[in-house]
Amino acid sequence: KYLIxxxxxxxxxxxxxxxxxxxxxxxxxLEVVTESCVEVQEIGEDEYLVIIRFTPTVPHxxxxxxxxxxxxxxxxxxxxxxxxxxxxxxxxxxSTEEDINKQINDKERVAAAMENxxxxxxxxxxxxxxx
Length: 131
Fold this sequence. Notes:
Belongs to the MIP18 family. The chain is an alpha+beta fold.
């Protein structure tokens, strides 16, 4: 149990500083992510499932996919333990949540998105820690 709590705060700390693609605020400041949106389950020896449920600021947010991508990239880079990652839009908070959930949890689509130089630059700006 204790380990999972440590992993929970680790994941929360990682995502709280991600910046919104359009605003100067962090996702935490905009309440897109909160500590309660992170769930960690043990799935094997020293391996954990990290589930993030984020809430876009508006039900038709055009940046929801990009925000999901930022969450995935930052967690993949920064989580200090072996993990599987599932990222979802909080149920009922976005008009196309099902499509977006599929996209941001599809390894090939994520890899393809990160090959796009413009998209990659935006993601980097959002996930890079401020100095």
